[in-house]
């Protein structure tokens, strides 16, 4: 049986009943498990998300310009730094609960409490994961009706619309862009290596920096491992022979999946994220401005995943758990999504925003 973080030191008493002077011990174990869950979620979220308590913001861009020629007595003419776009963020309530009656409560063991806690934490992880994937992959903006602030337009990643973005090379004017791409062919060496386009489209924007990570669905794994320029991460159980190239670097970032290795032609690290929908890959950078913002309430007691209440109505007991959060694009060129094997991009099935 898997063991929640707060229950690790209680494994030797899993068979004991909770009611036998164990209520406070189990309550502390549950809270420690929730705290560790929130910490780990924050670490993984940091790849895609920065938190905010605001409902709307303006993404400030920097326009490209060059220094002005001056003589010894010259004075530069002031410029106006311009360029921005407006974005907004939803907020939703989601929860789960478990219940017992008088008999099952009396029979509950520490092992039962551990299993229930793991189930609650897993439900939160799945809800957060699905909403992040939806915010990254959805192909259109949508309207959120906020009870306090009215209609909010929730933007998606750059989709080829009229919005312009700065690039580091080429013309000095800002340009339209799309980071939701349909790749007609399977990933292969040469022109069909979609990771190269992913890398180039991310690093061309000054908002992005650091290493490029390509998170891939499981069905793309075989074709990427087969690339001539792919190097798998070192296996401590295997000693390589002479004249064999070996990956010696390390990503050094928390990722929601398994690091497979490094693709040298693109310069991207490759991570298998088993939860991604089939044929999709998502590229992000380890530094720079995050592609998404997660809106939370300003009140601390409403932030994170919480066990919020217990309700007793003999013979029943009910424990309520709550998450309040919402995701929207912030840096609209901060991530890159590719649909592999189809030249037309479409939101993956089941991930159209708004997610329930």
What topology emerges from the helices and strands here?
Layout: H1 23-45, E1 49-52, E2 56-60, E3 84-88, E4 92-101, H2 102-107, H3 110-137, E5 142-146, E6 150-154, E7 159-165, E8 175-178, E9 180-183, H4 194-203, E10 208-216, H5 221-225, E11 230-232, E12 258-263, E13 268-272, E14 280-288, E15 292-295, E16 306-313, E17 316-329, E18 335-340
Parallel strand pairs: 1-15, 9-18, 10-13
Antiparallel strand pairs: 2-3, 4-17, 5-6, 7-8, 10-14, 11-12, 12-13, 14-18, 15-17, 16-17
Class based on secondary structure composition and strand pairing = alpha+beta
Which strand order does the major sheet show?
Answer: 9-18-14-10-13-12-11
Mean pLDDT across the residues is 92
Order of helices and strands: HEEEEHHEEEEEHEHEEEEEEEE
Strands, count: 18
Morphology call: globular
Please estimate the helix content. Answer: 10-25%
Strand percentage, roughly?
Answer: 25-35%
- Uncertain spans: none
The rounded Rg comes to 24 Å
Q: So how many helices? A: 5
Query: What is the end-to-end distance?
Result: 31 Å
Described by strand count, sense and barrel closure, the largest sheet is:
7 strands, mixed
Q: What do these coordinates show?
A:
The chain is α+β, with helices and mostly antiparallel strands and 356 residues long. Helices cover 20% and strands 32% of the residues. The protein is built from five helices and 18 strands. Strands 9-18-14-10-13-12-11 form a seven-stranded mixed sheet. Strand 5 (142-146) and strand 6 (150-154) form a beta hairpin. Helix 1 (23-45) runs parallel beside helix 3. It is globular. The two termini are 31 Å apart. The mean pLDDT is 92.
